[in-house]
Specification:
12 helices; about 75% helix; mainly alpha; globular
């Protein structure tokens, strides 16, 4: 790909993302045009005896989701300088705002770095990568478990492709660690490990615990919403589907501003195995997007 200019590569990546998002909207439209949406479902849901209790729990989880992210950033930012909860809140919310208008949320890195001196810019970007990286690790780990579990119930991925995936994954990991001293633009895995080791273990441990709690909060937001809409799927099966959705949707190039479309299309496909109304799946995806991204 060396013969392609950087601008052309960016154009191709942008085109790929637009195609993925466009495909997601097309899939959702095809699935939903077969059945009209019953607007009464919202009012009927809110009239259930325990509806407002579930709504209160949902709002609490929504607050916890973002607050845990604020605590995560406060914890990591102290490597550069200690900051208050309020300062961490400002930086996280500005980061979200920058991220929502940029591909794959990369603007979040610039949004947080904006609060620090230029000499700390690289360090802040690295710390933000650590903050997001641990979240990605949990998404991949639980997502793989969820995907394999759902696939064992309703096979949508052939066994040979699963074995091929794990074979390639193991090969890639072995290759990466065998060439950890090879530098790319002045950086190597050795440099990465060294930078990670410079962060105190106490900070790493707290980051891992907060990230795990945040992941659990996030998937339980889905559980509460599907419970509200009378979707009767066993608890662990539902969580497995949600974990699988996050893994499959996050592996594709996307824009945060229309993130609900990609997650919604994947969710419609996976929940179709359990007979869940596509409109409810789409509505839940849109509400999660609204609560966790747009409002913050």
């Amino acid at each position: 790909m060396k013969f392609l200019s950087p601008k052309f590569k960016k154009f191709l990546l942008l085109l790929l993302k637009l195609m993925v998002v466009g495909g997601a909207f097309y899939f959702i439209n095809n699935q939903l045009t077969e059945k009209d949406f019953n607007w009464d479902i919202i009012s009927q849901t809110l009239q259930k005896p325990n509806a407002w209790i579930l709504v209160a729990i949902l709002l609490l989880l929504t607050f916890c989701n973002r607050f845990l992210e604020i605590l995560k950033w406060q914890n990591l930012a102290q490597v550069v300088k200690p900051i208050s909860i309020w300062e961490s809140t400002k930086q996280v919310l500005i980061g979200i705002t920058f991220g929502i208008v940029t591909p794959n949320g990369i603007g979040e890195y610039a949004g947080k770095a904006w609060f620090y001196d230029k000499k700390h810019a690289v360090k802040i970007v690295f710390l933000n990568a650590v903050c997001n990286g641990i979240q990605v690790i949990f998404s991949v780990l639980f997502g793989l478990i969820g995907t394999l579990y759902i696939n064992s119930l309703h096979q949508f991925i052939d066994t040979k492709y699963i074995l091929l995936f794990f074979g390639i994954l193991i090969a890639v990991i072995l290759v990466i660690f065998s060439v950890k001293n090879i530098q790319i633009k002045g950086y190597s895995l050795q440099t990465l490990f060294k930078s990670l080791n410079e962060i105190p273990k106490k900070i790493h441990r707290k980051n891992i615990v907060l990230a795990l709690l945040r992941y659990l909060v996030l998937i339980h937001q889905y559980f509460i919403l599907y419970t509200l809409f009378n979707v009767e799927i066993p608890y662990f099966v539902l969580l497995a589907v949600v974990a699988s959705i996050y893994l499959l949707a996050s592996s594709l190039p996307n824009f945060q501003a229309v993130d609900f479309a990609l997650k919604g299309s994947v969710a419609i496909y996976l929940f179709s195995f359990f007979g869940v109304d596509g409109w409810i799946v789409t509505l839940v995806a849109a509400l999660i997007w609204l609560l966790n991204l747009v409002i913050p």
